UniProtKB/TrEMBL annotation:
Domain HTH cro/C1-type: start-end pairs: 37-84
MF GO annotations: DNA binding
Domain of life from the UniProt record: Bacteria
Coiled-coil boundaries: none
SUPFAM superfamilies registered for this protein in UniProt: lambda repressor-like DNA-binding domains
PANTHER family: BLL4672 PROTEIN (PTHR35010:SF2), BLL4672 PROTEIN-RELATED (PTHR35010)
Identification of the protein by name: Helix-turn-helix transcriptional regulator
Leader sequence segment: none
Length: 282
Protein backbone atom coordinates (compact mmCIF):
# COMPACT_ATOMS: atom_id res chain seq x y z
CA UNK A 1 0.00 0.00 0.00
CA UNK A 2 1.49 3.38 -0.94
CA UNK A 3 1.65 6.25 1.52
CA UNK A 4 -0.70 8.28 -0.70
CA UNK A 5 -3.36 5.57 -0.67
CA UNK A 6 -2.95 5.09 3.08
CA UNK A 7 -3.77 8.78 3.57
CA UNK A 8 -6.75 8.46 1.22
CA UNK A 9 -8.13 5.47 3.13
CA UNK A 10 -7.71 7.22 6.49
CA UNK A 11 -9.55 10.29 5.23
CA UNK A 12 -12.43 8.25 3.82
CA UNK A 13 -12.78 6.31 7.08
CA UNK A 14 -12.83 9.49 9.15
CA UNK A 15 -15.57 11.07 7.02
CA UNK A 16 -17.57 7.83 6.99
CA UNK A 17 -17.32 7.56 10.80
CA UNK A 18 -18.63 11.10 11.14
CA UNK A 19 -21.76 10.57 9.02
CA UNK A 20 -24.69 8.69 10.54
CA UNK A 21 -27.40 7.03 8.44
CA UNK A 22 -29.89 9.64 9.64
CA UNK A 23 -27.68 12.51 8.50
CA UNK A 24 -27.07 10.72 5.22
CA UNK A 25 -30.85 10.51 4.68
CA UNK A 26 -31.05 6.73 4.57
CA UNK A 27 -32.43 3.86 6.61
CA UNK A 28 -29.71 2.03 8.48
CA UNK A 29 -28.98 -1.51 7.37
CA UNK A 30 -30.26 -4.11 9.89
CA UNK A 31 -27.98 -5.84 12.37
CA UNK A 32 -25.62 -4.74 15.18
CA UNK A 33 -23.48 -1.69 14.47
CA UNK A 34 -19.75 -1.70 15.22
CA UNK A 35 -18.94 1.72 13.73
CA UNK A 36 -19.96 5.22 14.92
CA UNK A 37 -21.14 6.28 11.47
CA UNK A 38 -21.95 4.60 8.18
CA UNK A 39 -20.96 1.03 7.42
CA UNK A 40 -18.84 0.46 4.34
CA UNK A 41 -21.78 -1.18 2.56
CA UNK A 42 -24.05 1.75 3.37
CA UNK A 43 -21.61 4.29 1.97
CA UNK A 44 -21.00 2.12 -1.09
CA UNK A 45 -24.73 2.07 -1.79
CA UNK A 46 -25.02 5.85 -1.40
CA UNK A 47 -22.12 6.37 -3.79
CA UNK A 48 -23.38 3.83 -6.32
CA UNK A 49 -20.34 1.57 -5.88
CA UNK A 50 -20.03 -2.09 -5.10
CA UNK A 51 -19.01 -2.92 -1.54
CA UNK A 52 -15.85 -4.54 -2.86
CA UNK A 53 -14.91 -1.47 -4.89
CA UNK A 54 -15.32 0.83 -1.89
CA UNK A 55 -13.40 -1.56 0.39
CA UNK A 56 -10.49 -1.50 -2.05
CA UNK A 57 -10.52 2.30 -1.94
CA UNK A 58 -10.47 2.44 1.85
CA UNK A 59 -7.83 -0.26 2.11
CA UNK A 60 -5.55 1.42 -0.43
CA UNK A 61 -5.82 -1.37 -3.00
CA UNK A 62 -7.51 0.68 -5.73
CA UNK A 63 -4.72 2.44 -7.60
CA UNK A 64 -6.81 4.11 -10.32
CA UNK A 65 -9.66 6.34 -9.15
CA UNK A 66 -11.83 8.14 -11.68
CA UNK A 67 -13.24 11.64 -11.32
CA UNK A 68 -16.73 10.13 -11.46
CA UNK A 69 -15.99 7.98 -8.40
CA UNK A 70 -14.52 10.95 -6.53
CA UNK A 71 -17.62 13.02 -7.26
CA UNK A 72 -19.86 10.17 -6.10
CA UNK A 73 -17.92 9.78 -2.86
CA UNK A 74 -18.00 13.54 -2.26
CA UNK A 75 -21.79 13.58 -2.63
CA UNK A 76 -22.31 10.51 -0.45
CA UNK A 77 -20.01 11.81 2.29
CA UNK A 78 -21.44 15.35 2.05
CA UNK A 79 -17.96 16.86 1.72
CA UNK A 80 -17.58 20.62 1.57
CA UNK A 81 -15.49 22.31 -1.11
CA UNK A 82 -12.20 22.14 0.81
CA UNK A 83 -12.72 18.47 1.68
CA UNK A 84 -13.51 17.68 -1.97
CA UNK A 85 -10.28 19.35 -3.10
CA UNK A 86 -8.35 17.44 -0.42
CA UNK A 87 -9.90 14.15 -1.58
CA UNK A 88 -8.81 14.90 -5.16
CA UNK A 89 -5.28 15.68 -3.95
CA UNK A 90 -5.06 12.39 -2.07
CA UNK A 91 -6.34 10.44 -5.07
CA UNK A 92 -4.12 12.16 -7.65
CA UNK A 93 -1.28 10.19 -9.25
CA UNK A 94 2.21 11.24 -8.19
CA UNK A 95 2.83 12.79 -11.59
CA UNK A 96 0.00 15.27 -10.99
CA UNK A 97 1.13 16.35 -7.51
CA UNK A 98 2.42 19.86 -6.98
CA UNK A 99 6.17 20.24 -7.28
CA UNK A 100 8.22 20.21 -4.08
CA UNK A 101 10.43 23.28 -3.76
CA UNK A 102 13.53 22.90 -1.60
CA UNK A 103 14.90 26.36 -2.39
CA UNK A 104 14.10 29.32 -0.16
CA UNK A 105 11.11 31.42 -1.10
CA UNK A 106 11.46 35.11 -1.78
CA UNK A 107 8.65 37.48 -0.98
CA UNK A 108 6.76 38.39 -4.15
CA UNK A 109 7.22 42.14 -4.86
CA UNK A 110 3.54 42.74 -5.55
CA UNK A 111 2.58 41.23 -2.22
CA UNK A 112 5.13 43.43 -0.46
CA UNK A 113 3.64 46.51 -2.10
CA UNK A 114 0.19 45.45 -0.94
CA UNK A 115 1.51 44.88 2.57
CA UNK A 116 2.95 48.40 2.64
CA UNK A 117 -0.39 49.88 1.56
CA UNK A 118 -2.04 48.07 4.50
CA UNK A 119 0.35 49.46 7.13
CA UNK A 120 -2.57 50.64 9.29
CA UNK A 121 -3.44 47.02 10.22
CA UNK A 122 -1.27 44.02 11.16
CA UNK A 123 -0.17 42.08 8.06
CA UNK A 124 1.86 38.90 7.64
CA UNK A 125 3.16 37.31 4.40
CA UNK A 126 3.45 33.54 4.67
CA UNK A 127 4.93 31.02 2.26
CA UNK A 128 5.19 27.25 2.14
CA UNK A 129 5.13 25.46 5.49
CA UNK A 130 3.85 28.70 7.10
CA UNK A 131 7.28 30.29 6.77
CA UNK A 132 7.30 34.02 7.51
CA UNK A 133 8.38 35.88 4.34
CA UNK A 134 7.57 39.39 5.57
CA UNK A 135 5.51 41.21 8.17
CA UNK A 136 4.86 44.78 9.20
CA UNK A 137 5.82 46.28 12.54
CA UNK A 138 2.22 46.50 13.74
CA UNK A 139 1.94 42.71 13.49
CA UNK A 140 4.84 42.23 15.89
CA UNK A 141 3.39 44.75 18.33
CA UNK A 142 0.03 42.98 18.37
CA UNK A 143 1.45 39.45 18.69
CA UNK A 144 4.40 40.32 20.92
CA UNK A 145 6.85 38.36 18.78
CA UNK A 146 9.40 39.62 16.22
CA UNK A 147 8.24 37.12 13.56
CA UNK A 148 11.56 37.39 11.76
CA UNK A 149 11.56 36.38 8.06
CA UNK A 150 12.56 32.74 7.83
CA UNK A 151 10.88 31.82 11.10
CA UNK A 152 7.84 29.55 11.25
CA UNK A 153 4.49 31.01 12.22
CA UNK A 154 3.01 27.60 12.99
CA UNK A 155 5.97 26.70 15.23
CA UNK A 156 5.40 29.89 17.19
CA UNK A 157 1.73 29.03 17.47
CA UNK A 158 2.40 25.63 19.06
CA UNK A 159 5.84 25.91 20.67
CA UNK A 160 5.89 29.39 22.24
CA UNK A 161 3.72 29.48 25.42
CA UNK A 162 3.14 33.20 24.77
CA UNK A 163 0.98 32.31 21.75
CA UNK A 164 -1.60 30.56 23.94
CA UNK A 165 -1.65 33.53 26.29
CA UNK A 166 -1.77 36.21 23.61
CA UNK A 167 -4.50 34.53 21.48
CA UNK A 168 -7.48 34.14 23.79
CA UNK A 169 -9.34 31.83 21.35
CA UNK A 170 -6.13 29.93 20.67
CA UNK A 171 -7.81 26.50 20.34
CA UNK A 172 -10.08 27.61 17.49
CA UNK A 173 -7.25 29.26 15.60
CA UNK A 174 -4.76 26.44 16.27
CA UNK A 175 -7.16 23.70 15.16
CA UNK A 176 -7.69 25.53 11.87
CA UNK A 177 -3.91 25.80 11.45
CA UNK A 178 -3.56 22.03 11.83
CA UNK A 179 -6.28 21.58 9.20
CA UNK A 180 -4.33 23.88 6.88
CA UNK A 181 -1.18 21.82 7.44
CA UNK A 182 -3.06 18.64 6.53
CA UNK A 183 -4.38 20.30 3.38
CA UNK A 184 -0.84 21.31 2.40
CA UNK A 185 0.51 17.81 3.08
CA UNK A 186 -2.21 16.44 0.79
CA UNK A 187 -0.94 18.72 -1.98
CA UNK A 188 2.76 17.97 -1.42
CA UNK A 189 3.15 14.59 0.31
CA UNK A 190 6.77 14.35 -0.88
CA UNK A 191 7.76 17.57 0.91
CA UNK A 192 10.02 16.04 3.54
CA UNK A 193 10.57 19.28 5.44
CA UNK A 194 6.82 19.74 5.74
CA UNK A 195 6.11 16.19 6.91
CA UNK A 196 9.04 16.34 9.35
CA UNK A 197 7.63 19.51 10.90
CA UNK A 198 4.18 17.94 11.23
CA UNK A 199 5.66 14.80 12.84
CA UNK A 200 7.65 16.91 15.30
CA UNK A 201 4.65 19.00 16.31
CA UNK A 202 2.47 15.92 16.71
CA UNK A 203 5.01 14.33 19.06
CA UNK A 204 5.51 17.39 21.23
CA UNK A 205 1.91 18.68 21.43
CA UNK A 206 -1.08 16.50 22.24
CA UNK A 207 -3.47 19.09 20.77
CA UNK A 208 -1.75 18.85 17.39
CA UNK A 209 -1.85 15.04 17.56
CA UNK A 210 -5.58 15.01 18.37
CA UNK A 211 -6.55 17.49 15.67
CA UNK A 212 -4.36 15.74 13.12
CA UNK A 213 -6.01 12.38 13.86
CA UNK A 214 -9.43 14.00 13.37
CA UNK A 215 -8.53 14.40 9.64
CA UNK A 216 -10.05 17.88 9.45
CA UNK A 217 -8.89 20.11 6.59
CA UNK A 218 -9.07 23.89 6.14
CA UNK A 219 -7.85 26.24 3.45
CA UNK A 220 -7.37 29.96 4.10
CA UNK A 221 -10.49 30.06 6.23
CA UNK A 222 -11.76 33.44 7.44
CA UNK A 223 -11.46 33.41 11.21
CA UNK A 224 -11.92 35.72 14.16
CA UNK A 225 -8.78 36.11 16.27
CA UNK A 226 -9.12 37.50 19.77
CA UNK A 227 -5.91 38.98 21.16
CA UNK A 228 -5.25 39.78 24.81
CA UNK A 229 -2.68 42.57 24.64
CA UNK A 230 -0.85 43.21 27.95
CA UNK A 231 -1.23 47.01 27.60
CA UNK A 232 -3.97 47.70 25.04
CA UNK A 233 -6.32 45.06 26.43
CA UNK A 234 -8.64 42.83 24.36
CA UNK A 235 -8.44 43.20 20.57
CA UNK A 236 -10.64 41.52 17.95
CA UNK A 237 -9.56 40.90 14.35
CA UNK A 238 -11.07 39.23 11.34
CA UNK A 239 -8.31 37.21 9.66
CA UNK A 240 -8.45 37.21 5.86
CA UNK A 241 -5.98 35.71 3.37
CA UNK A 242 -5.07 37.15 -0.02
CA UNK A 243 -3.31 35.04 -2.66
CA UNK A 244 -1.46 36.85 -5.42
CA UNK A 245 -1.54 35.94 -9.13
CA UNK A 246 2.12 34.92 -9.44
CA UNK A 247 2.77 32.49 -6.59
CA UNK A 248 -0.14 30.50 -5.10
CA UNK A 249 2.14 29.35 -2.28
CA UNK A 250 2.33 32.88 -0.86
CA UNK A 251 -0.56 34.37 1.07
CA UNK A 252 -0.95 37.75 2.67
CA UNK A 253 -2.67 37.38 6.04
CA UNK A 254 -4.49 40.59 6.90
CA UNK A 255 -5.85 41.41 10.36
CA UNK A 256 -9.02 43.36 9.53
CA UNK A 257 -11.05 45.38 12.04
CA UNK A 258 -14.62 46.57 12.29
CA UNK A 259 -14.93 50.33 11.70
CA UNK A 260 -15.53 52.37 14.88
CA UNK A 261 -14.75 49.35 17.07
CA UNK A 262 -12.58 49.48 20.17
CA UNK A 263 -9.84 47.67 18.28
CA UNK A 264 -9.97 50.20 15.43
CA UNK A 265 -9.59 53.02 17.95
CA UNK A 266 -6.61 51.39 19.68
CA UNK A 267 -4.64 50.40 16.55
CA UNK A 268 -3.32 53.92 15.77
CA UNK A 269 -1.87 54.06 19.28
CA UNK A 270 -0.22 50.66 18.81
CA UNK A 271 1.08 51.82 15.43
CA UNK A 272 2.74 54.76 17.17
CA UNK A 273 4.50 52.39 19.55
CA UNK A 274 5.80 50.34 16.62
CA UNK A 275 6.75 53.29 14.39
CA UNK A 276 10.45 52.86 15.14
CA UNK A 277 10.40 49.18 14.10
CA UNK A 278 10.37 48.98 10.27
CA UNK A 279 8.65 46.24 8.33
CA UNK A 280 10.75 43.12 7.79
CA UNK A 281 10.98 41.15 4.59
CA UNK A 282 12.95 38.16 3.40
Amino acid sequence: MTADRTALGAFLRSRRDGLTPARAGMTAFPGPRRVPGLRKEELAMLAGLSSDHYSRLEQGRQHTITDEVLRALSRALQLDGVEQAHLRDLAAPTSRRREVHETSQRAEPGMLRLMNVLDHVPVLLLGRRSEVLARNSLLTTVLGNPMEPGSSFVRWLFVDPEARTRISNWADFAAASVGALRYEVGQRPQDRRLTAMVDELRKRDEDVARWWDDQGVTFRTSLTKNITHPVAGPLTFGIESVVGPHDPDQRLVVYTVEPHSTTAAVLPILAGWSADAPSQRG
